[in-house]
Amino acid sequence: MLFAALLVLGLALVVFGPPPPILRIQRVTIAGAGRPILPMRFAHDDDHRGIPCATCHHEFVDRRTGSTCMHCHVTDPKVSPLLERQFHDLCRSCHIKEQAEGKPAGPTRSCVACHQTDEEF
Amino acid sequence: MSRGNAVLAAIVGLVFLVSFASGARVGGGWFWDLGNALGFLGLAGILFQMIPAARGAATKRHERLGYWVLAIAGAHAFWFLLGDGAVRVYLQPGAPLAMWLGLAALLVLAPLTLLARMPERARVHRSFRGFRAVHRFLGFAVVGTASLHVALTGFYLTRWLQDALLLAVISACCLGRSYWARLGAPAVASAPAFAAAGLAAAAAFVLARNLGR
User: Fold this and answer.
1) Is A56 on the interface with B (CB under 8 A)?
2) Over its length of 213 residues, how does chain B's per-residue pLDDT go in tens digits?
3) DSSP states of A63-78 as a string?
4) Is B101 exposed, middle or buried (0-12, 13-18, 19+ CB in 10 A)?
5) Which residues are listed as membrane-spanning (chain B) (predicted)?
6) B212: contact with A, CB 8 A cutoff
7) Which residues 73-112 in chain A show a CB within 8 A of chain B?
8) How many Cβ atoms from other residues are within 10 Å of residue A19's Cβ?
9) Domains by residue range for chain A, with CATH
């Protein structure tokens, strides 16, 4: 009986999310994209100041500037399935490295620390 | 300390030590590290329960510890579902394999534990032999899915050496019936011993990764 109740509660949490005040994050579809993605808070003028642009922006090295990251990574059917893994690896590996070196680092694990739209942050 | 409790403490210690073999000071914050400590403790409990032994009269303690292990595994899952509003997305369509494996481990662990108790067991299985075969099969399924969940999420186990060490602990717990039999007493431990070992290991796990940061 208890197990059945927990199963229903778990299912409800997965479908509807935790009760407020915890933010409930949903996948959203960006125009032109095939797959819904999690919203992402990222601002250049915060703690990323001082990091060389080409660390993340490979298009500067490839000399393909002119469009946003999302243009390819979300809308290109060849790379969009890799979006989540690529960006998790890119962001997290740097945060983990900095934390391991004892420097102030960005989130290494907490999902909601990054996956919020700028307005919700 | 009884032999069973000592073996349990050793397994809890070993599972947590594997996580320290790389990035021992790298954490995800108090909330995440505590939730994941519950996960590692659940895995250690599952591995202890897998030690092959003829339990006989000690079955009751094996059963009781099973409830604790299930509760810890459930707490690990609900901890994140209730505390981080984005985690649920990783249990919805499109979620990574590691998360499906974690969910599968919990969903198999529940019937493995709950259908092993009497009188439910007698209703489901006509013979003890049939029950034992299914119970062992489900046990191996839980170990497989739970350990892959830990390895593939790849936050605390980031090097192949750690995966190899975890595999060694798993093999030692799940195989080698004759070697375990030489220990004498069947591998049973008390719930308070599990709680004490878990508390110590989880405290070390969380404090090492967050204290002084």
Assistant:
1) no
2) 687 889 999 999 999 999 999 888 888 889 999 999 999 999 999 999 998 877 677 788 899 999 999 999 999 999 999 988 888 888 988 788 999 999 999 999 999 998 888 888 888 888 889 999 999 999 999 999 999 999 999 889 989 999 999 999 999 999 887 788 777 766 778 889 999 999 999 999 999 998 866
3) T--SS-HHHHHHH-TT
4) buried
5) 37-58, 65-82, 97-116, 137-158, 187-208
6) no
7) 84-85, 96, 99-100, 102, 107-112
8) 9
9) 20-121 (3.90.10.10)
Q: Is B23 on the interface with A (CB under 8 A)?
A: yes
| Domains delineated in chain B | 3-210 (1.20.120)
Alpha helices in chain A (DSSP H): 2-16, 58-62, 69-75, 83-100
Q: How many CA atoms lie less than 13 Å away from A106 in the CB half-sphere?
A: 20
Band the pLDDT of A121: cuts 50, 70, 90: very low
B28 at interface of A, judged by CB pairs closer than 8 A:
yes
Chain B's closest residue to A36, CA to CA, is B94
Q: At what angle are helices B59-83 and B97-114 packed, to 10 degrees?
A: 140
CB-CB under 8 Å, A109 with B86 = no
- Closest of B39, B86, B68 to residue A116, by C-alpha: B86
What's the ipTM?
0.71
Name which of A101, A109, A121 to mutate to probe chain B: the one with the most chain B Cβ atoms within 10 A of its Cβ.
Answer: A109
Q: Which of B84, B108, B113, B158 to mutate to test the interface with A (most CBs of A within 10 A)?
A: B84
